[in-house]
Amino acid sequence: MSVGATPSTDARLTESEPRLVATPGTPAFTCRVARAAAEQAAYYGLRRAIFCDEQRLFTASDRDDADTHAVPIVCLAGARVVGVVRIWEEAPGDWWGGRLGVDADFRTVGAIGRWLIQTAVGTARAWGAWRFRATVQRPNVPLFRRLHWQTRQELEILGQPHHLMEADLTRYTPTAEARPVASAAPCDEACDAA
Fold first, then answer.
1. What are the angstrom distances between the C-alpha of 135 and each of 82, 143, 152, 167?
2. pLDDT at 18 exceeding the cut of 60
């Protein structure tokens, strides 16, 4: 999905490409599965900057077991990774999303998180999702509710309040994103040093 920086009033979740109006002087944004090794390295680097350095939820790395089979999704401004999220299939058709984050320099755009959520859920739908869930930090719950997610349970994770939320899949159109080959090796810990 390639988009400009300013959403139009008729943008809808049910479209695979939200209608967004480009404004002069704003970069074009693209949200998609990270493809190149450099994109994957930047994906892990941004996650580390957000979840380790900024939020201090983790020390040296925010990686966990889900990363061994998760698919990294990035939002690019040109070639720069400015947003991240990961998706993974826990059981056939049962998908999860996590580690949603936006580069601090791009948070004022106000739409990157939404675009990443749309891409994540739409991609999982294209790959057979019948359910899509995420644990969401409490400050982000209003955004997810606007995007047709419902709270299933309130939790505490890493000492922080979270909501276990589920997307209304009928509100998300499947993307045309091709599913990566399962045998492709994910970017290893060396990516964290990039």
1. 21, 13, 10, 11
2. no
